[in-house]
Specification:
The complex is a heterodimer.
Chain A: H1 3-38, H2 54-64, H3 75-93, E1 101-104, E2 107-110, H4 119-128, H5 131-140, H6 144-175, H7 180-186, E3 190-191, E4 195-196, H8 199-202, H9 204-217, H10 229-232, H11 242-267, H12 277-285, H13 292-322, H14 330-358
Antiparallel strand pairs in A: 1-2, 3-4
Chain B: H1 14-17, H2 20-38, E1 63-65, H3 80-84, E2 90-96, E3 110-118, H4 127-131, E4 137-139, E5 154-155, H5 157-160
Antiparallel strand pairs in B: 1-4, 2-3, 3-5
The chains are: A mainly alpha, B alpha+beta.
């Protein structure tokens, strides 16, 4: 590995991690203020401009608290759980392409940290790890509430992983590749010249199932069964305090960012330019020398902005849905997962297989 | 007459069963509220310590005893309020007003030596206000009555004779 490779890899990691982690305080702020706006309240607005520093204050408080480990816990797994919780979604982010490529010093840099052909499998493997912190944290805490919470959480996540996997399979059959970069290029065409040929247009049922399943995977409302203030107190992280709780909290939001990035890559054209951005790239290009490299770099910037806008939209939807829908009862959750989404995704998969085998060459 | 039982529950229609339409409707409602809050800055709550709600003049808050232009209390210690009080929170000790302190002549021969109201017992019914022949005891519009000890809940004459503008 040359020095240039090392620097460009480091820069890419810095960009992705930077955006993923710095978006969390803003997300927490938005969750609180957005919920306030949706409920006709004002929300936290005392700390900093518009209350933006509220999450900074919260994190400072978590940092300065004593890092207490209760005496009755299994220390190794107790400490391991929040680490996995944070590492899994961050690892999954590594294969999300955030632009086609830029050309620096005549060298082509693909804007994806891990350029692996089995990108989606890698991503699913890391996303699947998100079950472990729930189980480990709940079990290692030696507490009835945490065990109940982790049981509920793990059974929910495992159930919804099936329908999620089915809808991903149907998209794999359509795209014919595991490589996320190629998936995005597949979606870059247009129907009749103006409708983007996104995965959601090709396979709307799969997109809907995936969208519902991803809510269950990230433990967000309406599927936030691992936590339940009224019946199991805090769920699997009751026994956690200070920054170990902060890591669970951070992980939830990083998982949201990862899920939004995944759904925009698989179903909404990923870093593909939003409608109207292509002319914007040309417009900006007229102010430069117009060499192919500069145009490519400008396009990469706008591709990155497109992905950010799409991810931002889905993050908004996550918050929006949370403050709209009441939560499911556990049996309703299992009914939805096993009796509706599972058969629906299965039928959808078979239809996609048949259509792609007989009608698409 | 025999009672007829009617079952008014209807089975869900197909579109109601898949919930998605209802979810979209709900999302649109919250989006409307979000736009109201975010862009139009319409809130149902207020920024309390800086902004206060306007209450009706009939609001019954902390008690006060009205005073005349000489800063003498209007109360003549007639015990009417103490008698009518259903919570028995008023304790009056009556005394004679010295003529030197009686600039209005014979109007106020008696005065309360002690006038204690136990605000923790008070149910803010306003009967004392209605019973008072001199319009002396009144309930102001003051609603911030938080205290840090039980002793502070005992309103004495000094506190009650505070100057209250209008209904406070």
């Amino acid at each position: 590995m040359t020095l240039f490779d090392f620097i460009q890899l480091f820069a890419k990691i810095a960009v992705v991690l930077g955006f993923a982690l710095t978006s969390v305080p803003f997300l927490v702020w938005f969750e609180r203020r957005g919920s306030a706006w949706m409920q006709g309240r004002v929300g936290p607005n005392r700390v900093g401009p518009f209350g933006l520093l509220q999450s900074v204050a919260d994190v400072l408080k978590l940092f300065t608290k004593e890092s207490f480990i209760p005496g009755h816990v299994n220390k190794f797994f107790y400490v391991l759980a929040p680490v996995i919780a944070l590492a899994a979604p961050v690892g999954a982010l590594m294969v999300i392409p955030f632009g086609s490529h830029v050309i620096v010093f005549g060298q082509k840099i693909v804007l994806q940290i891990a350029e692996i052909d089995s990108g989606l499998i890698f991503l699913l493997a890391f996303a699947g790890l998100e079950v472990y912190p729930v189980i480990l944290g709940g079990w290692a805490s030696h507490n009835k509430y945490t065990v109940l919470g982790s049981l509920r959480g793990s059974s929910q996540m495992v159930s919804y992983e099936i329908s999620m996997g089915m809808s991903i399979l149907s998209m794999l059959i359509i795209y014919g590749t595991f490589n996320l970069q190629e998936m995005v290029f597949w979606q870059s065409e247009k129907i009749f010249g103006f409708i983007p040929y996104w995965g959601v247009v090709v396979n709307p049922i799969g997109a809907l199932i995936f969208f519902i399943a991803i809510f269950a995977e990230t433990n967000r409302l309406p599927f936030d069964l691992p936590e339940g203030d009224s019946e199991i107190v805090g769920g699997y992280h009751i026994e956690y305090g200070a920054m170990k709780f902060g890591m669970f909290f951070l992980a939830e939001y990083v998982a949201m960012v990862m899920a939004s990035a995944l759904i925009s890559t698989m179903f909404f054209g990923g870093f593909g330019l939003l409608p109207g951005f292509a002319s914007l790239v040309e417009f900006v290009g007229t102010f430069t020398s117009g060499s192919p490299e500069t145009v490519q770099n400008i396009q990469a910037v706008f591709e990155f902005v497109s992905l950010l806008l799409k991810v931002g939209f889905f993050l908004f939807v996550f918050v929006w849905v949370r403050w709209t829908l009441p939560r499911f009862r556990f049996d309703q959750l299992m009914d939805l997962g096993w009796k509706i989404l599972f058969p629906l995704s299965f039928v959808n998969l078979i239809v996609i297989i048949l259509v792609s085998h007989f009608f698409v060459k | 007459m025999a009672t007829k039982t009617v079952n008014v529950s209807k089975p869900y229609t197909w579109s109601e069963k898949i919930y998605l339409l209802a979810i979209v409707q709900g999302l649109l409602i919250t989006l409307k509220h979000f736009i109201n809050g975010f862009f139009l800055r319409k809130h149902n709550t207020i920024m309390y310590p800086e902004v206060r709600r306007e209450y009706s003049d009939r609001f019954r808050g902390a008690h006060f005893i009205s005073i005349d232009r000489n800063k003498t209390e209007n109360c003549t210690a007639c015990y009417l309020c103490q008698t009518v009080c259903p919570a028995e929170c008023i304790t009056i000790v009556a005394g004679e007003r010295e003529s030197a302190h009686n600039p209005d002549g014979v109007k106020k021969e008696k005065q309360p030596v002690k006038f204690d109201i136990d605000a923790l017992r008070c149910c803010f019914c306003g009967f004392c206000e209605e019973a008072c022949p001199k319009d002396a005891i009144k309930l102001s519009g003051k609603y911030e009555m938080a205290i840090t000890s039980r002793e502070e809940a005992k309103y004495d004459l000094v506190y009650l004779k505070r100057e209250v503008k209008g209904r406070g």
